[in-house]
């Protein structure tokens, strides 16, 4: 059972306090979008073995959505950060670079 | 025959006799006995039958790894199947029964399977019964089910009580042997919060028995003294928690561990077992090692046991498993057993050591005792059926030519020891193969890792491969110190393991006749020849071979069979053991009681029940409830002589003819407020909500971004910046979460607050032709047609209650929903009943609500919708804005499949004979599917008997439904057959809305 620290209330929360929200940093394809981008937005998700950015909600705590950067194979947690971002914060990327030298975000 | 020795027995109290029964016969033992030791002391060697061949089996071990001695304990609601006799503490009055035998343990019909073993090879399930097909269902499967299987499931609910506890520790230590105690002392001295758990009934592990046999001391003290000192020291440390009878059963991500404490094993206790949920910074695994059997012909005959178990019974319990015990060993350990037996006054006719030239203190001691040692020898086969009568010995390096036959009544075998790496492996720790010691051991460089990426499990003692008490002490202390400091296993030096020859088959070149009698998995009857067959048939992966042969799938989960099985597989495939690898280690370490997983969450405590403010009245007035989420809503209120359906029919008529009351407090009430609330509402709902006037209500739909309908309900605009959203009963929480998700993750710069106020308000539907009169009688608010037209709301004082009254309808009648503070709901309900008595006021439940809405053609989320339905499918396209630039689901709804005119759409359905169509029935379409089945073109979503019309009414989703009114179709019936029905307008009642607006 994972422990993730909620970046809002600071609680190191057990996984049972959280609800998962899938992959983070998706871009909504709204009205006017091409079929391919709508398909990708609604259904295509990456499933990496390794560094992954994902959404969680502190559902049985403060109720806030946040993101975590986690290694799906080892459960290393590189950091958690508020969901109110459009890109991964620099300090998180640095933490990943330090512990996973040479890692690059897949395109 | 096994018996109690005249003297000895470290663990038993000969002054505490205890009576128990086995298969109904009265037996006696002593305090401190296990069920197995007590049965052996009574001469009862056979304790079970194997799974497949029903062979008679005695215990092979003295611990948690036992595969054979499985028994049923207790009776009725306290019955427990598949208890391992070897770790069941003997208690006064214990009732045990044997399993998997009929009619009796001594004579069992199913044993005929053994005679048929040639026809029951590995994978026989998959091969034998392919043809004829019908035979499988009617002949083979029932026969197999009757003859296979172990304990019978209990016939009554578990009468015991269980509880769970959550806690945290700096250091959790699994195992209370020398290594575990040493680790606890070091960690405790360093100030860490320590939890030390031992599965067995005493501290000290193997050292109590093994150290004295070789004169080993611990820190210069006799083992027993050191253990006592360690326990005393730990008990004085306030930061150390100690538990016996407690197995750490699983290690999971980020230092989470589960442990089960068998409270009742230590004596009478208010709870039988307690499940510990522990979050530990570091976990020390000190569970010791498991002795390996040797694979020789007849190694499953009762009386063939692990050497360690034989000496445990002798030294620990004062029990001789036989008078003449032949010892066969691949390493030093067999010598310990031989020495212990001779010292206990028993005969050891021979000690067969597969090695040549073994030396060391144990060998010298055995020689000094005059034990006959045969080097380079093994067992060709064991004689005997119900018990051992002798062994034939042979050269280990050869095909098994018999050199000599030795009469004996028991065999002690030792194939070396495998570190118990289960907990290490469960959470992702990797193993390394130690060729010299012939064992898989934890690879300290590849541990299970925590959130910070560092290894959080530190193995110690026998679990890490330690061979001597001294090494266990050192490695335990070192692991404890490191654990307290938050260190990692890479900084922990692995202890010295004992060199061990690899003896996987005895004798080495045994032919098929012998290999067919060498058991690997005793419980599941998997033999060396079965694994070889699997390899020949192409099962190269150890995981596949396991499932094909069932090796390691018994209740001991391969504790005894795993290593021998994968070595055999590797040999058959010509691969080295590390290339074959191990199967996956999964929790629990040993079985835990299902009751302890449930804890106290059974019966009424299974989950919380949400109660409305009027629930007491419902309870007192005969409500027949149905669960709706965590709520219990009255389905109907049956009166004397009525069933629940008849009551719903009466309640429906009362609403149509007089006035009804529905407790609608469970409906979701979410307030959306803020300067950007209108903009936000327009995104959440498919229709326009920002232009709703204050004081007005509007029906709205919520879709997800794929375009599928999620929820519906009436929205009221409370003020310039405030909207109140009614949701379905089941939708309140997830619609609120849906709003929050979009608000927080997409439009976080919008100034909007949401609040779920569902439980803050009680709400009553007052519906029917007398509804207005009833509210007028309550008085205080003008609810006239003019002052409060359909789809408006007003605030005021109604009968002294601060109330919001919404003129909305889910029945088609004049209808008001009255909302008051939750604390006043019961009073409002009572006032409505009293004031409306002469008007025929009638409380109605959810079934009447359903019938009323279906007569009116209103859809119900979860009935007409199921997550794959769009608003247009339900003819609700009018509630999907074409003007708005965007809303959640707008783009999704334009996808080609959702815009397909061939989609099933909502239509009414009426059976030609007026009967009620079965809800869920399929509408049969033209032609057949590609697989030759009847095509379908729709399904019935709701169906009721309508008291208003006097016949069955239904709603259905049918391909192009609304375009086909008047057409007759066929619908399926449960159990076969079809009935004819005609497509009709789903709005049957008051299509013009005269009553609604009246």
TrEMBL record, chain A:
Domain of life: Bacteria
A Gene Ontology biological process term: tetrahydrofolate metabolic process
GO MF terms held by the record: sarcosine oxidase activity
Pfam families linked to this entry: SoxD
Designated name of the protein: Heterotetrameric sarcosine oxidase delta subunit
Species this protein is from: Pseudoroseicyclus aestuarii
UniProtKB/TrEMBL annotation, chain B:
Residue intervals of the FAD/NAD(P)-binding domain: 170-434
Keyword 4Fe-4S appears in the UniProt entry: no
Alphabetical UniProt keywords: Oxidoreductase
Sequence segments annotated as region (Disordered): 445-472
Gene Ontology MF term list: sarcosine oxidase activity
One record GO biological process: tetrahydrofolate metabolic process
Pfam family, one: Pyr_redox_2
Record PANTHER family: AMINOMETHYLTRANSFERASE, AMINOMETHYLTRANSFERASE, MITOCHONDRIAL
Family of the protein in this entry: Belongs to the GcvT family.
Protein name: Heterotetrameric sarcosine oxidase alpha subunit
Organism: Pseudoroseicyclus aestuarii
């Amino acid at each position: 059972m994972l422990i993730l620290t909620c970046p809002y209330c600071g609680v190191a929360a057990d996984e049972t306090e959280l609800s998962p929200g899938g992959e983070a940093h998706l871009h909504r394809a709204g009205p006017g979008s091409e079929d391919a981008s709508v398909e990708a937005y609604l259904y295509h998700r990456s499933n990496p073995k390794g560094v992954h950015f994902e959404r969680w909600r502190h559902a049985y705590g403060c109720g806030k959505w946040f993101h975590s950067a986690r290694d799906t194979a080892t459960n290393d947690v590189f950091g958690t950060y508020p969901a109110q971002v459009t890109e991964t914060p620099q300090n998180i990327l640095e933490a990943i670079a330090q512990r996973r030298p040479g890692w690059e975000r897949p395109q | 025959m096994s018996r109690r020795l005249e003297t000895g027995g470290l663990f038993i109290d000969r002054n505490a006799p205890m009576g128990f029964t086995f298969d109904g016969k009265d037996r006696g033992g002593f305090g401190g006995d296990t069920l197995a030791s007590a049965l052996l002391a009574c001469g009862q060697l056979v304790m079970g039958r194997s799974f497949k061949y029903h062979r008679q089996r005695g215990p092979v071990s003295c611990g948690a790894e036992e595969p054979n001695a499985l028994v049923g304990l207790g009776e009725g609601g306290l019955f427990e199947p598949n208890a391992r006799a070897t770790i069941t503490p003997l208690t006064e009055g214990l009732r045990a029964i044997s399993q998997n035998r009929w009619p009796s343990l001594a004579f069992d019909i199913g044993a005929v399977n053994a005679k048929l073993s040639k026809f029951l090879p590995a994978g026989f399930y998959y091969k034998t019964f392919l043809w004829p097909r019908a035979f499988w269902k009617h002949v083979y499967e029932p026969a197999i089910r009757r003859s296979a299987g172990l304990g019978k499931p209990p016939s009554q609910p578990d009468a015991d009580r269980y509880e769970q506890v959550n806690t945290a520790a700096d250091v959790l230590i699994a195992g209370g042997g020398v290594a575990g105690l040493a680790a606890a002392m070091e960690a405790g001295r360093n100030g860490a919060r320590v939890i030390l758990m031992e599965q067995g009934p005493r501290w000290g592990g193997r050292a109590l028995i093994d150290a004295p046999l070789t004169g080993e001391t611990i820190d210069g003290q006799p083992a027993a003294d050191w253990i006592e000192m360690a326990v005393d020291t730990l008990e004085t440390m306030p930061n150390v928690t100690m538990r016996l009878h407690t197995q750490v059963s699983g290690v999971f991500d980020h230092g989470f561990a589960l442990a089960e404490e068998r409270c009742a094993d230590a004596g009478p206790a208010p709870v039988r077992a307690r499940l510990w949920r522990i979050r530990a910074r570091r976990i020390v695994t000190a569970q010791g090692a498991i002795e390996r059997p040797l694979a020789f012909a007849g190694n499953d005959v009762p009386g063939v046991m692990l050497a360690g178990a034989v000496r445990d019974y002798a030294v620990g319990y004062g029990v001789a498993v036989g008078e003449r015990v032949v010892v066969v060993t691949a390493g030093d350990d067999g010598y310990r057993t031989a020495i212990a037996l001779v010292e206990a006054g028993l005969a050891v006719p021979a000690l067969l050591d597969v090695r040549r030239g073994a030396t060391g203190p144990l060998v010298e001691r055995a020689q000094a005792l005059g034990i006959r040692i045969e080097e380079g020898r093994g067992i060709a086969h064991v004689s005997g059926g119900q018990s051992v009568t002798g062994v034939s010995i042979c050269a280990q390096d050869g095909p098994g030519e018999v050199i000599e036959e030795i009469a004996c009544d028991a065999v002690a075998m030792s194939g070396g020891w495998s570190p118990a790496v289960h907990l290490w492996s469960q959470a992702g720790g990797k193993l390394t193969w130690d060729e010299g010691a012939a064992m898989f051991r934890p690879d300290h460089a590849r541990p299970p890792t925590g959130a910070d990426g560092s290894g959080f499990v530190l193995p110690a003692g026998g679990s890490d491969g330690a061979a001597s008490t001294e090494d266990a002490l050192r490695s335990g202390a070192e692991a404890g110190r490191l654990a307290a400091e938050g260190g990692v296993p890479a900084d922990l030096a692995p202890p010295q393991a004992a060199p061990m020859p690899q003896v996987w088959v005895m004798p080495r070149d045994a032919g098929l006749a012998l290999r067919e009698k060498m058991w690997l998995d005793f419980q599941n009857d998997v033999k060396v020849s079965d694994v070889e067959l699997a390899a020949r048939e192409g099962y190269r992966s150890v995981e596949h071979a396991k499932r094909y042969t069932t090796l390691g799938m018994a209740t001991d989960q391969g504790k005894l069979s795993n290593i021998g099985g994968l070595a055999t597989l590797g040999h058959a495939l010509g691969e080295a053991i590390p290339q074959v690898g191990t199967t996956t280690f999964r929790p629990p370490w040993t079985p835990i009681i299902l009751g302890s997983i449930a804890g106290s969450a059974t019966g009424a405590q299974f989950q919380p029940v949400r109660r409305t403010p009027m629930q007491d009245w419902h309870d007192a007035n005969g409500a027949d409830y149905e669960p709706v989420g965590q709520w219990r809503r009255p389905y109907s209120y049956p009166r004397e002589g009525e069933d629940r359906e008849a009551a719903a029919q009466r309640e429906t008529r009362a609403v149509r003819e007089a006035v009804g009351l529905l407790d609608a407090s469970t409906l979701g009430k979410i307030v959306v407020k803020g300067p950007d609330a209108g903009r936000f509402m327009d995104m959440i709902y498919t229709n326009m909500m920002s232009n709703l006037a204050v004081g007005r209500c509007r029906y709205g739909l919520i879709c997800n971004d794929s375009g599928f309908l999620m929820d519906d309900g009436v929205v009221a605009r409370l003020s310039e910046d405030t909207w109140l959203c009614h949701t379905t009963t089941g939708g309140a929480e997830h619609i609120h979460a849906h709003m929050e998700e979009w608000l927080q993750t997409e439009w976080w710069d919008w100034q909007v607050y949401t609040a779920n106020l569902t439980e803050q308000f009680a709400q009553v539907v007052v519906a029917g032709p007398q509804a207005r009169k009833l509210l007028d009688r309550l008085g205080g608010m003008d609810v006239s047609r003019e002052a409060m037209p359909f789809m408006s709301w007003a605030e005021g004082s109604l009968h002294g209650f601060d109330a919001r009254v919404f003129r909305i309808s889910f029945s088609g009648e004049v209808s008001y929903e009255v909302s008051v503070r939750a604390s006043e709901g019961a009073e409002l309900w009572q006032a409505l009943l009293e004031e409306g008595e002469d008007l025929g006021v009638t409380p109605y439940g959810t079934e009447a609500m359903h019938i009323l809405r279906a007569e009116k053609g209103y859809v119900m989320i979860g009935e007409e919708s199921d997550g794959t339905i769009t608003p247009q499918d339900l003819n609700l396209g009018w509630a999907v804005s074409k003007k708005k630039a965007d809303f959640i689901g707008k783009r999704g709804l334009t996808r080609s499949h959702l815009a397909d005119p061939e989609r099933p759409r909502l239509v009414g359905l009426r059976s030609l004979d007026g009967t009620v169509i079965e809800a869920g029935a399929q509408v049969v379409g033209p032609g057949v599917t590609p697989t030759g089945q009847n095509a379908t073109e729709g399904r019935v979503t709701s169906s009721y008997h309508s008291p208003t019309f006097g016949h069955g009414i239904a709603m259905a989703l049918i391909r192009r439904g609304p375009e086909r009114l008047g057409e007759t179709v066929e619908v399926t019936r449960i159990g076969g057959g079809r009935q004819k029905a005609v497509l009709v307008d789903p709005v049957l009642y008051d299509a013009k809305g005269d009553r609604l607006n009246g």
